[in-house]
């Protein structure tokens, strides 16, 4: 099998997946950031009743039509209503009800006057100004009319959407179920952080890098931990996840070494889609399907895992989740510090990008991790490129 280009590899991967259609109901408070599964129309008007925008008095405006400071209208105060209460009698013309902001305007009333603009003594209200019909008056449905399409299925729920749903009395929301991702690292050399360091062993950092990136993107991967370099055992562990996963991600064991078990795992449980992509680092990635679940086995070198996660896995996540913003963005930038090695093959190097300029850190071997801290981009160098001078225009992949 010939190595395929990165673009071909992404195409093959994207052919295997479609947007998740399954739905689930979640409590409203947990719906933030989720994708609404179906259209949502207003079940009722909001506000549900005509209401006062002021603390003051409400009455029939015709009773104060000729009021002036010299000849105020006198009304009889027959009651009081705070927000949350409901004055259920009709208010006769010539009478008034004290009302607080948010209170329902009683029948018989069509305006509200500010408390500061009138004088009340006992049950007599003195109104020194005329108010017109519907002055200082909020209508039912002024915010949301019953039946209005408020949000379409596919909407990503923000804080404002949450508030609108709450205002409509919604306590549970139908959302698209999450993308189910199982994540494991392979390698007998790997130790869990917290275990004592032993000769020849290293700590498993890839799992944290990939789980961290997935969580930064809003996914909640199932962490399988470390799988041993034992083909049958690793195959069993992967197989056990197939029916509950959309994507199985592993790192390590994909090259040509004695313990590169992922080839055997793929042979045992599924069908290989490709092995080896024309890029550095991360070339030996394997893609496979098993029981219709997509598996991507990335190489174990930390930066190789990082680069192939961004370039191969992210497009798959974008398609599964319907989130186009996860497709990588590319820009052109000026390389400020040059790159002394030739690039016979297509190469991606970690970099810091800001405002049209990009810089490559000194350490960039695929086995080294520390200099990836703070990097927010890859510089992309096409195959057959010589060393790059400072000031060269380069392609940049933004992370
Ligand atoms: N004879 C050849 N050897 C290698 C080739 C080749 O073409 N011919 N390719 C090299 C390239 S390129 C890469 S990349 C690696 C890929 O190797 P694997 O994906 O099989 O990964 P491992 O051998 O399991 O590990 C590589 C390296 O990374 C360390 N590692 C593995 N997992 C983790 C982890 N979870 N956290 C931190 N570090 C990890 C591992 O100890 C190795 O040092 O193969 C080259 N060899
Ligand atoms: O992918 Mo390897 O990390 O190219 O060296």
TrEMBL record:
Pfam families: MoCF_biosynth, MoeA_C, MoeA_N
SUPFAM superfamilies listed in its UniProt record: MoeA C-terminal domain-like (SSF63867), MoeA N-terminal region -like (SSF63882), Molybdenum cofactor biosynthesis proteins (SSF53218)
Presence of the UniProt keyword Metal-binding in the record: yes
GO cellular component: cytosol
Catalysed conversion reaction: adenylyl-molybdopterin + molybdate = Mo-molybdopterin + AMP + H(+)
Keyword Aminoacyl-tRNA synthetase appears in the UniProt entry: no
Segments forming a coiled coil: none
Pathway: Cofactor biosynthesis; molybdopterin biosynthesis
Cofactor: Mg(2+)
Record protein name field: Molybdopterin molybdenumtransferase
Organism: Selenomonas montiformis
């Amino acid at each position: 099998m010939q190595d395929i280009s990165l673009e071909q590899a992404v195409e093959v991967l994207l052919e295997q997946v479609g947007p998740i259609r399954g739905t689930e109901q979640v409590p409203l408070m947990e719906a933030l950031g989720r994708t609404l599964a179906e259209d949502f129309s207003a079940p009722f008007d909001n506000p549900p009743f005509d209401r006062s925008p002021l603390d003051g008095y409400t009455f029939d405006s015709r009773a104060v039509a000729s009021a002036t400071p010299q000849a105020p209208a006198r009304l009889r105060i027959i009651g009081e209503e705070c927000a949350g209460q409901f004055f259920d009698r009709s208010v006769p013309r010539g009478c008034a009800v004290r009302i607080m902001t948010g209170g329902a305007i009683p029948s018989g009333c069509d305006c509200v006057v500010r408390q500061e603009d009138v004088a009340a003594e006992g049950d007599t209200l003195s109104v020194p100004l005329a108010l017109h019909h519907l002055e200082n008056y909020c209508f039912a449905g002024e915010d949301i009319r019953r039946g209005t399409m408020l949000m379409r299925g596919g909407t990503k729920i923000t804080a404002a959407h949450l508030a609108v749903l709450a205002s409509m009395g919604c306590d549970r929301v139908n959302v698209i179920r999450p993308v189910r991702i199982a994540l494991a690292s392979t390698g007998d050399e790997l130790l869990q952080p917290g275990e004592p360091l032993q000769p020849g062993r290293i700590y498993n950092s890839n799992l944290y890098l990939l789980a961290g990136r997935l969580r930064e993107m809003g996914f909640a991967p199932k962490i399988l931990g470390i799988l041993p370099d034992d083909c049958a055992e690793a195959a069993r562990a992967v197989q056990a996840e197939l029916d509950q996963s959309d994507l199985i991600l592993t790192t390590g064991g994909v090259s040509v070494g004695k313990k590169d078990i992922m080839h055997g795992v793929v042979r045992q449980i599924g069908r290989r889609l490709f092995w080896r992509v024309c890029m550095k680092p991360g070339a030996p990635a394997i893609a496979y399907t098993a029981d219709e679940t997509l598996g991507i086995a990335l190489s174990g070198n930390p930066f190789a895992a990082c680069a192939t996660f961004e370039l191969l896995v992210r497009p798959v996540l974008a398609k599964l989740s319907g989130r186009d913003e996860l497709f990588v963005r590319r820009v052109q930038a000026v390389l400020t510090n040059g790159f002394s090695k030739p690039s016979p093959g297509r190469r991606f190097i970690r970099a810091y990008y800001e405002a049209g300029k990009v810089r490559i850190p000194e350490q960039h071997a695929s086995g080294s991790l520390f200099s990836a801290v703070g990097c927010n981009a890859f510089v992309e160098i096409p195959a057959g490129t010589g060393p790059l001078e400072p000031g060269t225009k380069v392609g940049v992949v933004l992370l």
